[in-house]
Design a protein that fits this description.
Layout (H helix, E strand, L loop, with lengths): L2 E5 L3 H13 L3 E5 L5 H8 L3 E4 L14 E3 L10
Parallel strand pairs: 1-2, 1-3, 3-4
């Protein structure tokens, strides 16, 4: 089963995205803040990271793809 780590400070976004992904058959771990991502990733071993806090985010696992979600950032931040 594909594992996805979701990082977002907004509970509603985190939970909605998590439920949608679970419904689609993914195994999901939810994390509130980027500082918790490394520990969660080391324990969970995700195949993909979705991050709602893209500014300054560096994937805690080299080689694991990640997607940045943002309602306010521009492509210049990507």
């Amino acid at each position: 089963m594909t594992k996805i780590l979701v990082i977002d400070s907004q509970r509603s976004v985190r939970n909605s995205l998590g439920e949608l992904l679970k419904h689609e058959g993914f195994e999901v771990r939810l994390v509130e803040v980027v500082s918790e991502a490394a520990a969660a990733a080391a324990e969970f071993h995700p195949n993909l990271i979705i991050c709602g806090e893209p500014e300054g985010f560096v994937s805690p696992l080299g080689g694991v793809p990640w997607i940045a979600l943002s309602a306010t950032a521009t492509m210049d931040c990507a």
